[in-house]
Amino acid sequence: MRNRPAIVMPDAVAVVTGYLRSALAAAGEPVPVVSRIPTPRPHRFVRVERIGGSSPTPVTDRARLDFHAWATREDQAHDLCALVRGLLGAIPGVRGGVTVYSVTEVGGPQWLPDDQSSQPRYAFAAEVHMRGRPFSL
User: Fold this and answer.
1) Architecture in CATH of 6-135
2) For 95-104, what is each residue's pLDDT tens digit?
3) What DSSP element (H or E) covers 67?
4) How is 53-110 classified by DSSP, letter by letter?
5) What is the pLDDT of residue 48?
């Protein structure tokens, strides 16, 4: 009987933040894309946070991610969120060596002013379905 290799799921936040950094820069919007709120806080930035997910098959991960876009004004936060939302739709393919199959939005954009800083913020949630990689023991 052959041992099956273990499957290691990718760090979905790292894959998505890396993709969004490049995609936003290519779109003329080189803003920080982070997993934690930076100190000091930039005037405009995007945060990607994993809030759960599932493993629909033994070799895939469907990460549920929150996307938050901060800016100086409400209209700028909205526009940054809309751009991130649009760019995320183009992520399927191989990104950073990881196969990304699809994106499913699970919560559309919402106005969500930051309760700590009062900085304008918009947010949405999506599931990003990607393939793990085999790891031999």
Assistant:
1) 2-Layer Sandwich (3.30)
2) 999 999 999 9
3) strand 60-70
4) EEEEETTEEEEEEEEEEE-SSHHHHHHHHHHHHHHHTT--EEETTEEEEEEEEEEEEE
5) 98
